Amino acid sequence: MTVVQQRDVWSAPLLAGVVIALLLRLPIACLPGLGRDEAAYVYWSRHPELSYSPLLQLLLRPFDHGSALLQRIPALLLGLLLLWLFDRLLRLRGASGDARRLGVLALAVAPWQTLVGGVIHPDNLLMVGVLGLVCATLERRPLLVGIYAGVAVAGKLSGFLVVPAALWALSTMRNASPLGRWLGGGILLAVCLLVGSAIRTTMVAELLSFGKVVAPGATWRGPLIWLLSVLFQAGPLLAVGAIFGGAALVRRLRSGVAPAPDPRGRPAVGLAETRVTAILAASFVLVFGAAAIFNQQWKENWMFPAFVLLWPSRFDWNRVTMAGLMIATASSTLVSLGMADPSRVAALEQLSPGGYAAKAGAREARVSAASRWTERLAEYRSIEPFAAEVRRAFGGRMPRHLVSDDYGLACQLAWVSVGTEVILPRDGVFWRTVPAVAPDDCALLAVQAPAEQLWAAVPQTVELARLPHPYARALVTLALAAIEPGVPGATQPVDPLSAPFDRLLGSYVSGESVRYAAWHANAADRGALGAYVDALEATVASKLEPKAGLAFWINLYNAATLELVLSRYPVESIKEIGSTLKSPWKKKVVKVEGRELSLDEIENEVIRPGWKDARIHFALNCASIGCPPLAAEAYRAEMLDAQLDASCRRALSDRRWLALDGGVIRATKLFDWYGSDFEQWAGGVRTFAAKYAPAPLQSALADPKTKIEFTDYDWKLNQAK
To answer: Measured between alpha carbons, how far is 89 from 93 in angstroms, rounded to an integer?
Structure first.
């Protein structure tokens, strides 16, 4: 093979594999909802957890814009990268033309690859690291050996199995650059220390229950399920090819015969690559084989890296291999069709030994309500209708914390509600994500147990509704939690004064709108708002601690604005409440410590000079569409920083307040009106906006050449249609 041929990145087999792979995977990537595991990975990308595929978390962040298809782009790209690496590895090994064609196509149409190449999953990160490590060994590039091994470790916890092979590879490259060897080893060590330091016993306990068969007859059923799963998920050709390739690998090791010379004309690597491949394959087979035999964990995808590594360099294209490809393609098509319409696989459900429960394992039975394959596939439908019912039950908003015994459902709701945090008391993975829980903003989603039994910190509950589970045959009990003070993870209420305001906001604030008509029609709730403003006026604000003081004045400003609008409702704009000589913001609306104040005075004479925090411009609401959304909760001292950050993030992730349009940034007029605040207190408009903007906008904001234009302010009332 000539050097020109070697540089031909898009070879015919690879192009065919890419086209076929995309045809099979795009229908899955276009499914409207995130599956429960996908939602969990997105959740961790928002709440970083180093022991939970940190590299995948980083890859997901730029694509987190609420669209399932956008968030699956990393999966599609990783799947194609894997095909390229596999084709490259076969070239470097000097594989025959038939072996290359069959290998790339077998990997492209493998049902497991169709799935993890279309949905968010860490398996392909692990596979990229494994194949890249072997390629780097063949090319004698120690720096790349360390990088690819680090990718495997940071991609999945089982990536630690590549470390012995990577160290062996580095030790064989004595003639390579010493600097490259040291850098490669240093990168691998740093990644291992970083990820390893985050591993804890609760996580290990969860790993030991993944795929563990607990049903009667597990001793014989596990191997049977595993064999059938391998033949279905990997495809018969990939499985048979691994057997032939493994036998050839053993023969080479026994004979001590070096592999073919490097296709680029470099000196042969001897048996180094063969031994690295053997160490990698043996690591996966032995470790996960032991898990199967001694712990009844039969997970076929844990073995797939070994299957791909062992693909033979000599394999003929004939009727038998063609039949294997066709079977795998049919199986992948069935996966795509089944995920699009789960009813299509209902008939096959009866053929599965032990059904879904036997395959899912012990952990699934404990933290998920799905008990059938059709239910498992149905979770890729949109969760939004169910989320709307949950919001309705909780007064038009999603609570900040969700306590549940169904990790998938909780994570799916958290996906469509940025800022919502998940607690699964029965699951050691999710427990430490929430350091403190506000007692009046904690919701229970009980599926498999009564709500009062979900968490020891919740001795009392108030049931709000019972809804059908969106994809499982179960009921979901929605309840409010009364958290017991003193229990780890719980905090006592610091600001009981604002509890009535919380209820009112929860009842009448929906998204970016306020249900003024309904609020105005409810005399009792109008009175409750007035009573809340009266209670704030009676507070000695000058005695409050700084954070409590800022929360007090923000709440007073927002409550007084709402009261002002409701006193004159119906109006089309808050501006109608003013007059030619005096705007509504100049009217005296409250009296605090003997001083009558207008909204303008609260903002510009009290809040801005007193706290000098640019975030307040996204917390104060002027009852207009152009104003950032009104929070559906009162501001509290103990949560103030998180609430202010959330208000900024919520507004600046919406195109109405910040967008990149044709190379121009279009930003809310607030940045223009209060430009000096952002310059003096936050490092400038660009710096402030970049801190809270979605990732794609951050680079544009960082570029001083990108022009910023301020949008017209919409003064129409922010009322629900």
So the answer is: 6
